[in-house]
Design a protein that fits this description.
The protein is mostly helical. The protein contains nine helices and no strands.
Length: 178
């Protein structure tokens, strides 16, 4: 039973590569998010994940945050919902817009198409409603953006699953407040 309990590893409890990453995160963010630290149970996982997460994409930061938030909502991950409410505000969303995204919509037609398709892909494992994909393309998105959207969903789904399984403490303001 003890193997099922996940404690957030400290810098001293992870390998040297992850210690360097922890140092970089502390310098950039002022702390190491608990979920990132949890990835450091794997000697290679944190670098691999951060390289994937930080790769270039056709999605803007604001679009990425909208996708991250709706995917986390669909997957029921309170840790990631909390983190992406904070990051969403940092990327220009207000509380009402963030609440709408959590409900799977946006007043902005282009963002609405993106959020609806991201939710549909996540809920239905890629078997989407034809209307949602048509609306996505009608809003000016491309096949490149579709591929990048799927990659963004996979990034966030991995983190959602990791938290839903490990239940490490949330180190952001809790999403339930919005």
């Amino acid at each position: 039973m003890e193997n099922l309990e996940f404690k957030v590893p400290t810098r001293e409890q992870v390998g040297s590569t992850n210690q360097e990453i922890f140092d970089g995160l502390n310098k950039a963010l002022g702390f190491v998010p608990n979920l990132y630290a949890t990835i450091a149970y794997s000697d290679h996982g944190l670098k691999r994940y951060l390289d994937f997460q930080n790769a270039k994409t056709s999605l803007s930061n604001k679009e990425k945050e909208a996708v991250n938030l709706i995917v986390s909502q669909v997957n029921g991950c309170i840790y990631c919902q909390s983190a992406h409410l904070v990051l969403g505000k940092m990327n220009g969303f207000d509380d009402a817009q963030l609440l709408d995204i959590r409900k799977g919509k946006s007043e902005n037609a282009r963002l609405n198409a993106l959020v609806k398709l991201a939710a549909d892909i996540t809920e239905n494992k890629g078997n989407v409603n034809a209307h949602n994909i048509e609306d996505f393309f009608a809003q000016g998105y491309t096949k490149e953006t579709l591929v990048d959207l799927i990659l963004q969903i996979s990034d966030k789904t991995a983190m959602n699953y990791l938290h839903n399984l490990t239940k490490v403490p949330v180190d952001f303001p809790i999403a339930e407040s919005l």
